[in-house]
Each structure stands twice: as structure tokens, then as C-alpha cells.
Amino acid sequence: YQEGDHDNIIDKKIIYFLERIRNEYLIDTTKLDDTFIQKLHHKSGKEEKDIRELVFLINEYRRSYHGSLEEDLIRINNAIEKILN
């Protein structure tokens, strides 16, 4: 974090999040689409809008070609925390 390597931190947070989803809820995480959102919503009891926001952020991050900013890291981290806590 101190070195400003936000991409690396975001990558690791996403990997950790998806691993937990696979282990705790036994949901396939290869495609983060509406089916994934519905399954996670039903199995976790978390708000669908929060899951949808996180999936949007992850997909946007994965499509992005520019380096991530600290704000990107904070947004993704907060969205992950909403789902995991």
C-alpha cells in the first residue's frame, strides 16, 4: 500500500473474496453475471444491490487498462467488506 501498488492489492482482495465465496457458498466464480449474483444473494442473504455493485466494480476493474487509483481500492474494499461481514 505504501508503495502505491493499488493494482496488486486489488487483485489479491478479489482473489481472496472469490476464494471465500467458492469455499463458503460452493458457488462457481468463473463468470460474475446475473446467475452468480442471484446465487450469492440467496445463499448469503446479503442485499442484491450490494452484490451487484461489487460485481460491477470487479468487472470494471478487470476491463480497465489504466492503473488503479487509491479510490478504486477503497471502493472495491468497502464493497467486499459489505458482502463478507
Features:
85 residues; mainly alpha; 4 helices
Q: Can you walk me through this structure?
A:
The protein is about 75% helix and about 0% strand. The longest helix is centred in the N-terminal third of the chain and has 20 residues. The protein contains 4 helices and no strands. It is mainly α.
Shape: elongated
Q: How many helices in DSSP terms? A: 4
Point out poorly predicted stretches: none
Helix content: over 70%
- The SSE order reads HHHH
Count of DSSP strands: 0
Distance linking N and C termini: 22 Å
SS content category: mainly alpha
The Rg value, from CA coordinates, equals 13 Å
Topology (elements, then pairings):
Elements lengths: L5 H20 L8 H11 L3 H16 L6 H15 L1
Helix pairs in contact: 1-4, 2-3, 3-4
Please give a quick description of this structure:
It is built from four helices and no strands. With 85 residues, the chain is mainly alpha-helical. Helix 1 (6-25) runs parallel beside helix 4 (70-84) and helix 2 (34-44) crosses helix 3 (48-63).
